[in-house]
Design brief:
2 domains; Alpha-Beta Plaits; globular; alpha+beta
Length: about 270
């Protein structure tokens, strides 16, 4: 058996998240496994780096699978894409040794949350951005974000149904930038809790709109109480853009996304 690592891009709008669920529920994993099984000519089970929720997108998801089928990298990519719907694509494939694990060998994950800050709601890209009509102060949001960087108990920023064993995570970076009418919140951590980025985005948007002072982000964190954290931001503007692995595996260093965003910084 050969272990294959693959990069996956998808628009999560039509799916109930990444993870396979009961029959009849559309998920990204079920579509990817079915397509790869057609190429491998045997059933395929994949492991992902990070399970995304309903409506969340990815430009840098990483998965792995084991197969005894003899295929080159191009065959895995183009063969799978020929059997995938238009809103999911395999970007690359690489053979790796058996020590590689898409989830457990990842040392970091990076998400981007894209906000359209405009008085009028969008008709196009309405499932690719979160719309906020109130003018948002990027400087205040960035000031608030500084309180969350580091190793903390993120209970106040985790989803109520989160099943992670520990709420303690290390947030390496939390940047807030404006690119024309778009605001981008970029979060990089060793791992994330359920809804963690969306709950952070909800707090930062409230502060940016003048509903709270920047220190409120720290007060929410210290409370260790999800009910103190305000509204969970919608999933539509959230993208999993990068997974960090040891360099020994030689995985492609793909540009970050989403690629349509004007002025997007494409490298870490």
């Amino acid at each position: 058996m050969t272990r294959i690592a693959l990069g996956v891009e998808y628009d999560g709008s039509a799916y109930s998240g990444w993870q396979t669920q009961q029959a009849g529920v559309a998920t990204v994993q079920s579509r990817v496994e079915a397509a790869l099984a057609r190429v491998a000519d045997h059933p395929v089970s994949v492991i992902c780096a990070g399970r995304t929720d309903r409506g969340v997108h990815a430009t840098g998801q990483v998965i792995h699978m084991d197969s005894d089928a003899v295929r080159d990298e191009k065959a895995w990519v183009h063969g799978a894409n020929a059997n995938l719907p238009d809103d999911i694509a395999i970007r690359w494939a690489r053979p790796v040794d058996d020590s590689f694990h898409a989830r457990f060998r990842a040392h970091s994950r990076c998400y981007r949350y894209v906000i359209l800050n405009h008085p009028v709601r969008p008709a196009l890209f309405r499932r690719q951005v979160t719309w906020n009509y109130r003018p948002l102060d990027v400087a205040l949001m960035a000031q608030a974000a500084e309180h969350l960087v580091g190793t903390h108990d993120f209970t106040s920023y985790r989803g109520i149904q989160c099943q992670a064993k520990s709420p303690v995570k290390t947030l390496h970076r939390l940047d807030v930038t404006r690119q024309q009418q778009y605001l981008v919140i970029e979060a990089e951590a060793n791992a994330f809790l359920m809804h963690m980025v969306r709950n952070i985005a909800g707090v930062l948007m409230a502060i940016g709109a003048g509903k709270a002072v920047p220190d409120w982000a720290a007060e929410v964190l210290a409370a260790r109480d999800r009910t103190r954290g305000g509204v969970t931001a919608p999933p539509f503007g959230l993208y999993l853009v990068h997974i960090g692995y040891p360099g020994e595996y030689g995985l492609p260093d793909e540009p970050l996304g989403p690629f349509w965003l004007p002025g997007t910084r494409l490298t870490r």
